[in-house]
Amino acid sequence: MDSAQAALTAPATGQGNAMTLRAKWTLGGIIAGGTAAALLGAGSSALALYFARRVLTPARVRAADQEILAVIKEGREQQVILAATPETTHDGTYSLFFDGGAGHARIGRILSYSPAERTVLREVEAVYSGNLEAAARGWWGGATYQFPSDVGLAFEDAGIEVEGGTAPAWLIPGEPGAETWAIMVHGRGATRQECLRGARVVHELGLPNLLVSYRNDGLAPAAFDGRYGLGSTEWRDVDAAISFALARGAKDVVLFGWSMGGAICLQTADLSEHRQVIRAMVLDAPVIDWVNVLAHHAELNRIPSAVGRYGQLMMGHKVGRRLTGLAAPVDLKSMDWVSRAVELRTPTLIVHSVDDEYVPYQPSALLAEKNPDVVTFEPFEGARHAKEWNADPVRWEGLVRAWLQQQLAPRVNPGMGGSPDSGPGVPT
Q1: Backbone angles phi, psi at 317, to 5 degrees
Q2: What is the pTM of this model?
Q3: If you average pLDDT over each of 51-55, 316-320, 380-384, which comes out highest?
Q4: 326 Cβ contact partners less than 8 Å away, ≥ 6 residues apart
Q5: Can you tell me whether residue 79 is helix, strand or coil?
Q6: What does the CA dihedral 234, 235, 237, 238 come to, rounded to 10 degrees?
Q7: What is the DSSP letter of 183?
Q8: Rounded to whole angstroms, how far apart are CA atoms 229 and 235?
């Protein structure tokens, strides 16, 4: 969800008109004996359905909500004047997409900021595609690189066989003979470009690195129902990526996940037949508890809490799914890792900014509090959603490097004086 900054649940009048009153009341009657619909009313029921569908349906068009006021050229260098927003006034390196996503620029440090004029002047580090000078609007994001080569890394295109076809991936080679691979999973509304921010530190550790795509992200084959499973279905594509790595010499893997990608990684570690080879996970601004996130978005969009809960009920009910378009209900409770904290046995590092406006950080902190032997929580400040690396790449890479070095250190059998990975020691 890097980048999925526009409200996912913004209500719009008239969206429920296509849904007949009979369908609304039938749903309410079947799910709750008529009580929910009777209490909410037809209009609120339609809003609950709209809320559920917005959460589950991949957006085809991103909102260009960032004004590009001017581009200044000085020789080969460029600067851009942007409307000041909570995002554009944060220090760090970010992405600016324009021309419907066909244009992509990397935006660097703040050169000047005028609160009175509500503008900010920033350095343009690179324009990967499109004509920034001709752009009037775009959207802000954290996917600062376009290809692995922009990070200085060689790569090859790979294809992972998933349900419905082949999902493209980037494979960045590691050290020859490396037996631990990294697999990186992007968030909702983003692509594998989002993961490039973590590629350098993985390469320094010598790990081969798969940056994957998954159903409904615009690159991999779409799911049959065209709906997000919020991790409950997407994990199968990550499981296929693990199979790909194992077939090419991996003995175990480290999963990286951003935002909804974190939820996908958690489901993979829970449900995959390969879960025993998942050595560790690094999760950036992960969705730990969807109920918490959806309640947060209902509040942000001034949707009554009862309506938001009814929308959640639609997602998880076998009848409600007929209206949401889901092929199968989404079990939100099974993805509540605060409640399931003791069940998580994979060593996990969570990096999460305390000012995350999109996925509240509290469930991440609670998970670590409830399972401190397995989960390490590192809070950031001033990074907003899934942009911890963007705000402070030195700290992000340092934390990840140190934690992974500890996790990947040769295992020593305790108590017997054996050498690393050598089996029981022989007393002398």
Answers
A1: -105, 140
A2: 0.88
A3: 380-384
A4: 56, 225, 227, 229, 315
A5: strand
A6: 140
A7: E
A8: 9
**Which of 387, 388, 345, 337 lies closest to 366, judged by CA?**
337
pLDDT value of residue 26: 40
Q: How far apart are CA 226 and CA 326, in angstroms?
A: 8
**What 3-state class would DSSP assign to 404?**
helix
Calpha distance 128→146 (Å, rounded)? 7
Neighbour-count burial for 30-69, b at 16+ CB within 10 Å, e otherwise: ebeeeebbeebeeebbbbbbbbbbbbbbeeeebebebbbe
Look at the domain 148-288+336-408 and name its fold: Rossmann fold (3.40.50)
* pLDDT, tens digit, 9 for 90 and up, residues 145-165: 999 999 999 999 999 999 999
Q: Is residue 22 scored above 60 in pLDDT? A: no
Q: What is the pLDDT of residues 97-120, one digit of tens each?
A: 999 999 999 999 999 999 999 999
Q: Are 216 and 225 in contact (CB under 8 A)?
A: no
- The Cα–Cα gap between 296 and 260 comes to 15
In percent, how much of the chain has pLDDT > 70? 86
Structure tokens at 229: 């499973």
- In this predicted structure, what is the pLDDT of residue 87? 95
Q: What is the spatial distance between Cα 243 and Cα 163, in angstroms, rounded to a whole number?
A: 13
Tokens of 366: 């609670």
User: How far is residue 56's CA from residue 174's CA, in Å, rounded to a whole number?
Assistant: 36
Encoding tokens for residue 254? 């480290």
Contact 119, 107 (CB under 8 A): no
